[in-house]
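Justification of resources, computational component.

The compute hours requested in this renewal are based largely on the per-chain cost of generating structure records like the one below. Each record pairs the submitted sequence with a full structure-token output. That output is archived, and it is also reused by downstream analysis tasks.
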Amino acid sequence: MSAELKEEEPIKGEMINQEINIRILGKSAEIDKQLNDIVSKPVLLLIVYTNGENRVVGNTENPVVLSQENAGVLPGTNLYSKRTSAEKAKIMQSF
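The structure output for this chain reads:
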């Protein structure tokens, strides 16, 4: 799985654009069930980067809603969301 988050730098008092793209390789009944639980529903995302950084996207007042498409040369699924937010994704500190 891979994920990409693009977001604008905030300008005081203005909403920012966020774009989230998630690529899940492979297909199975279990993956399809898990996708059905989150696609087109309000969710909060925790993106864990390989450099150890964690970011939370969305909140209870402005959750992320993911759309799904089957695309690409290899079997898999793309999840994406284009949204506006009052704030950038929050950096989560390790415990």
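The beta strands are 2-7, 16-25, 42-43, 45-48, 54-57, 64-65, 67-69, 76-85, 90-92. The longest strand covers residues 16-25.
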